[in-house]
Structures are given as structure tokens and as C-alpha cells.
Amino acid sequence: RCQAAQCVEEGMVRVSSPGNIGRLDLFSGNRWRRVSYSSIDSEDVSIACRQLGFTGGLDLGTSSTSCSDCTGSAYGFSCTGEESMLNDCPHSLTSGNYTSVQVSCAD
Predict the structure, then answer these.
(1) Which residues lie below 8 Å from residue 38, measured CB to CB, with a gap of 6+?
(2) Residues 44-85: pLDDT tens digits?
(3) Which residues make Cβ contacts (< 8 Å) with residue 22, sequence separation at least 6?
């Protein structure tokens, strides 16, 4: 699916700010969703950052940035550490907008 001259696929992740620090979003169910702060841990963040090409990452707490193209949230991640994509981890989706997590991905 392409939007605003950018093509996205199920399971893609992004960091809201250019670079490696910002709100973490997941493209799931044909829409961008905020990743909920309350249900993600360091293993989950590391998987998302590795998916983006970094070696790992840190959970920096809650994000105050808004997401104009997000609809709903992803929460309840249960990653083992072996997944190559955050979307491969068991999780749930909601139409509610839960408080987002802010991450820092590192090389």
C-alpha cells in the first residue's frame, strides 16, 4: 500500500522523528498504529530497532508526539527475542489511542 509517495507493508515499523529517537509506530491491519508504552519491554524495542537496521534500542518512556496518520494502538507484546519483526510477536490491536512509547535505536 502506498500513501504520500511512500509504500508500506504489513508489519513495518517506524520511528516518528528523523533519525533514531522518537515515537514507535507499527503498520498493522492496513493502518499505522501507535505502539503502547504500557505493554512493551526492552526486548520488544530491540526487535523493532533491529527491524529498522539498528543493533538494538532502549525504551525512553512515554512519547508526547502526536500521530496524525495513526488509527488505534498495538499493545500486549510478548516477544521471545527470536523474532525478526515486531509484528511477529504475539500482540493485540485496538481502535483506542493508548499512550505511545518513545524509543532510541542504536548502531
Answers:
(1) 75, 98, 99
(2) 999 999 999 999 999 999 998 888 888 999 999 999 999 999
(3) 15, 16, 63, 65, 102, 103
Angstrom distance (rounded) from CA 107 to CA 105: 7
CA distance 19 to 78: 26
Work out whether the CA dihedral 50, 54, 58, 64 comes out positive or negative. Answer: negative
